[in-house]
Amino acid sequence: MQAQIDQALAEISSVVLGKEQQVKLALCCLLAGGHLLLEDLPGMGKTTLAQALAGVLGLSFKRIQFTSDLLPADILGGSVFDPTQGTFSFREGPVFCQLLMADEINRATPRTQSALLEAMEEGQVTLDGETRPLPEPFFVIATQNPTNLAGTYPLPESQTDRFLMCLSLGYPNASAERELLKAFTVRHHQQLANACLSDTDLGGIRKALAGIHVSDVLLDYVQRLIDFTRNNKHCREGLSPRAGMAIMRAASCYALMHGRDYVSADDVQAVFPAVAEHRLQANTDVMTSSYDNNQGGLGSWILASVNVLPAPH
Asked: In CATH, which superfamily holds the domain spanning 2-201?
């Protein structure tokens, strides 16, 4: 299992250059059974990363380009009349796959965005009074542009909370950008990501996660982080119990990816910003010099503000 995970990381890193930590967190998100949101400026490699992840997982894959005129039926499917039979039959939409890429999800209207809520939370779709299960496993990898760009509709909190992690790639470092400029096209990169994991591997990883040890000392640390968001004036609203469980699930998978059978404080710190920041909003009305929203993000500031207990062994 460890060899397959390492190979998958190497495959994705050969496509998305110079972003080893973001690649590791993105794969961690999917291995933990969560949905992934990629937010950044256009042209930063969000779609490339999403397609590379789909490639290494070897799952059935479909992509939807979200636009302002996209309708829920374009995602979920619907009943189609057959004139030869005189009956209606259900035609599946692209959501009926194992890995759905929702490209530029915030360019669609809120009504269309909400079409994915039941699918992401329950792994099923209810249409015309009938509930239809989605294939197992089911993942959504969504990309979105910053909400200050033209033609975007902010995702509601109920939707962002369905994503286990939210990541930004940022600009490449100088050496990675030089490699991109010298030799490789985006399409050539995408073809380099080969399948490394199977359905059986994913099932084995899920079972292994249940055996990852979490000490009481580590749980105390996580609870202190959660309580800090609920009782600090810089956060409009604190993290929910679902967010707390998401932190533990992601940290357990991060530990597994590093070959350990226990969760350490380092694992929590590695995943906390990606799991927490899109669920938190800074209270700009009471912002003080102790927190600058432009320096490291709210999640990183919370980690720096809460005392770290020794990692369990």
From this structure: P-loop containing nucleotide triphosphate hydrolases (3.40.50.300)
